[in-house]
Inverse folding.
């Protein structure tokens, strides 16, 4: 038995938890903040058989992949020939940090 | 040294923490939600000597045992000879998921 | 790879997280309450290379050392020659509980 501790972005968490539960994985959601990833993040505890670790990590990678989001910043503008042009800025979103630890003993009561 | 990560139902947590502390176990309570168990749950971190793992699990089993609660549902009624009869429904409460992991190093400062 | 689970006092957490991040450690902050330490506390997850465990523990010890704080209690006073004298009371603050667990597998995506 292994315990997967996954720290993911808040916005990726609901979909990921859904998919994991549809695949019959048990997930516990802890609230967490900052550090590993810039914005708010969520820590998940997922207990799985050793043989399932790869599949869970594959699912996390699929739903939490690091990606760029283009967003327009209303506060940053350039003046070009008298016209204010909003900057578009690229923001890195997604990503995950995953720790897999061995479980000595597992009990479900 | 072992670290016991126990996910229990919110309603069972206060009594369990009380009993563990009366037995001189140190308990840290993390907020957690959904997943392993249907309703709100609480994650506890309990650091113990290897020899004490059995006793802690026994205490958790005693205070978090899975049990059925009969409750009347006001929204579900049957009409029997013109009389509204409230349904009684059985709800599963309690239960716990316990992970025991080995601790390489433990420091209390 | 090791996962350091550190439970520290709320008031020591911000400075500690700052210093750890300035030293390029990734920190995830979980909310936690009571138990190991009397007042509100914070649980940190810090993933580090085996060789860095000592340094992280040294930093935690430096910023979370157990110490006495002298505080005046407005509710406790002695009357001495008609003058109310506030009691000063010593409160134990700081302290930390640290678990280091081995990480089977670590992924950052
Ligand atoms: Ni195992
Ligand atoms: Ni040990
Ligand atoms: Ni390792």
């Amino acid at each position: 038995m292994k315990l997967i501790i996954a720290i993911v972005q808040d916005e990726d968490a609901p979909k990921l938890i859904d998919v994991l539960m549809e695949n019959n994985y048990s997930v516990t959601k802890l609230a967490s903040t900052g550090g590993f990833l810039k914005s708010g993040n969520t820590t998940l505890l997922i207990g799985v058989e050793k043989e399932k670790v790869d599949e869970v990590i594959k699912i996390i990678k699929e739903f939490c992949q690091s990606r760029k989001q283009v967003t327009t910043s209303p506060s940053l503008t350039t003046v070009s020939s008298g016209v204010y042009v909003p900057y578009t800025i690229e923001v890195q979103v997604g990503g995950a940090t995953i720790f897999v630890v061995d479980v000595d003993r597992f009990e479900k009561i």
In short: Chain B is about 20% helix and 55% strand.
